[in-house]
Please model this.
Amino acid sequence: MSHQSLEDIAIQLDSESTRDRMVALASLRNVPAEDAMPLIKKVLDDKNLQIRSMAIFALGVKPTAESYPILIKLLENDPDYGIRADAAGALGYLEDPRAFEPLVRTFYEDTDWLVRFSAAVSLGNLKDPRAHDVLIQALDSQEVVVQQAAIAALGEIKDLESVDHILRFAQSEDWLVRQRLAEALGHLPTPKSISALQYLEKDSHSHVSEAATFSLRQLAQAE
Model:
């Protein structure tokens, strides 16, 4: 990208028009991370929450050495729960092992379920087996989406010890929970996983039965 077009984006990010700033931010997807960072930082404190959210997402998918400390600061200090959730999610994209402890702390301490949900998802993205305890606790959340995130994350970290804990969701009333279970079991090669997947293959919801079939195939190929 030419210097001029980067300059154009910078000017557009200063526009009074929310739409102009949004378009400029979206156009950074074609810009190398090091060039994009100063422009992303221009709108991290934008008055429009959607633009702030887009900028935080960009920090995760356009990582530089600055991304991690900025995201940690937002996760731990921003008063807006949506921004904290975005920061937690972006840390998962970075896949930086340093994020493990801040994400665990966030899950235990943040009062908003959306932030805890994002933290659980990102703990799965980190693929760190130390997440076992916090994710098992997340299974008992009163928020179904947090349970879904925890089930998926336990599959992501390939936590064989979690199989007995997550099998209780095989008859959940929420088909998305059952689907997440079917997907997670595809990463957890145990006899109980195979038995549960054969049961889920007969599920009344097509998304669940298809996920179970795919996971059984995945486990067979792994052998």
Remarks:
- The longest helix spans residues 206-222.
